[in-house]
Write a structure and sequence with these properties.
CATH superfamily of the largest domain: Butyryl-CoA Dehydrogenase, subunit A, domain 3
Shape: globular
Largest sheet: 4 strands, mixed
Bound molecules: flavin-adenine dinucleotide
Number of strands: 10
């Protein structure tokens, strides 16, 4: 395989999730920077996405949670979270909310009570530490770390009947009546959305998606061998286009890591601008690369190739679903706006 860099292939998703190394890899310092560096984090996510997009989604959320707790939480919260991750405890971030989203409905000196639901809660039922956002009485967003095994939530499994990514179990979860101690509060109101971390964090799903694109390119090459289509110029052209798209996606992942590392070292306005523009551009570039590859793969393998036991149908569905991330149009329009403002200033 051209792009497989990790020894993940022979193990089930459950085994991989139970692998402490995979979860412990997310360890972060007090700035939320992965201890192995940005490039290692994103390359790991690309490799995991190559293996399985559902696993990638869970590991991506886990890394985001550890980074948020490490950067915004107290020293004690950071040490505990990193220790738990190293011991194999799975974290997740559940921010997406329906109109009846989670809010803090009552609070005392050292406790608070929640009402409302979260939707798209990936790994609900498996995630042990859910970093959720809740509206306070002023409407501001507050992060809370919920120990899922200790609170009585209602998981609505019927809420998740998706095109793909079914096994991500991204159910709606009702937190009404949940009481938490004040040690569940992570950081200050507004910390979750704080920039440039919020926009830059999209680099994680970009990396997982890039892994998915590479996997499809490799699977198409293997399919061409199985079906002996090597003499067909059209099939070889399609395959070539997929290989180039996968390489392009990988380059964008590296560009994100580079821009983020540069900002970590020197958080000046110019490096922030570069970081945000690079990640916004990467989101668009990976989406384009993935949609191009999906179309070519569907044409190349045909209806018979989209039947089990060929691997394509499941992967195509998962990637199409996982590509749908928040406000994609806003991200690419920011790239245009940045170029426009740059031109105005010249
Ligand atoms: C498999 C999967 C797992 C997920 N897991 C999680 C999770 O664990 N935790 C979590 O918090 N979230 C999760 N999400 C949710 C995800 O982060 C996004 O919030 C969600 O996918 C966005 O949904 P949407 O495409 O309907 O969003 P939207 O952002 O609403 O996009 C839909 C369309 O509307 C457009 N649009 C949006 N706003 C405007 C506007 N103001 N004006 C004009 N056009 C607009 C967009 O550009 C886009 O074209 C998951 C999503 C998926 C697919």
């Amino acid at each position: 395989m051209l792009f497989s860099t990790f020894d993940l292939a022979d193990r089930s998703v459950e085994e991989l999730l139970a692998d402490r190394r995979l979860l412990g890899n997310a360890a972060a310092d007090e700035h939320g920077v992965p201890v192995d560096g940005r490039l290692a984090e994103l390359e790991d996510l690309r490799a995991v996405g190559y293996r399985d997009l559902v696993l990638g989604r869970l590991i991506e959320g886990h890394g985001n949670a550890i980074a948020l707790v490490s950067r915004c939480g107290t020293e004690r919260q950071r040490t505990t979270a990193n220790g738990e991750a190293a011991a194999g405890v799975l974290f997740g971030v559940w921010n997406t909310a329906p109109p009846d989203g989670v809010r803090i409905v009552a609070a005392g000196d050292a406790w608070l009570e929640l009402g409302g639901r979260k939707t798209f809660c990936s790994g609900a039922g498996t995630v042990a530490r859910a970093l959720i956002t809740a509206r306070d009485p002023n409407g501001a967003s507050q992060m809370l770390l919920v120990p899922m095994e200790r609170v009585p939530v209602r998981i609505d499994r019927d809420s998740w009947d998706p095109l793909g990514m079914r096994e991500s179990d991204s159910f709606a979860v009702d937190f009404t009546g949940v009481r938490l101690g004040s040690d569940a509060v992570i950081g200050d109101v507004g910390d979750y959305d704080r920039q440039p971390w919020f926009a830059a964090g999209a680099a994680r799903f970009v990396a997982v998606q890039a892994g998915g694109v590479a996997r499809l390119a490799d699977e198409l090459a293997a399919f061409a061998v199985r079906r002996s289509t090597g003499e067909d110029a059209v099939q070889m052209t399609r395959l070539g286009e997929c290989v180039v798209a996968a390489h392009t996606a990988a380059q964008w992942v590296r560009a994100c890591a580079e821009a983020w590392s540069a900002w970590d070292v020197d958080p000046a306005a110019e490096s922030e601008r570069r970081l945000r523009t690079t990640v916004d551009a990467a989101r668009y570039a990976i989406e384009r690369a993935a949609l191009d590859v999906l179309e070519r793969v569907e044409r190349a393998v045909g209806a018979r190739g989209l039947l089990a036991p060929e691997p394509f149908a499941a992967f195509v569905r998962d990637l199409r679903m996982y590509l749908r991330q928040p406000a994609p149009d806003l991200a690419i329009s920011r790239v245009g706006r940045d170029a426009f403002e740059h031109a105005c200033a010249e």
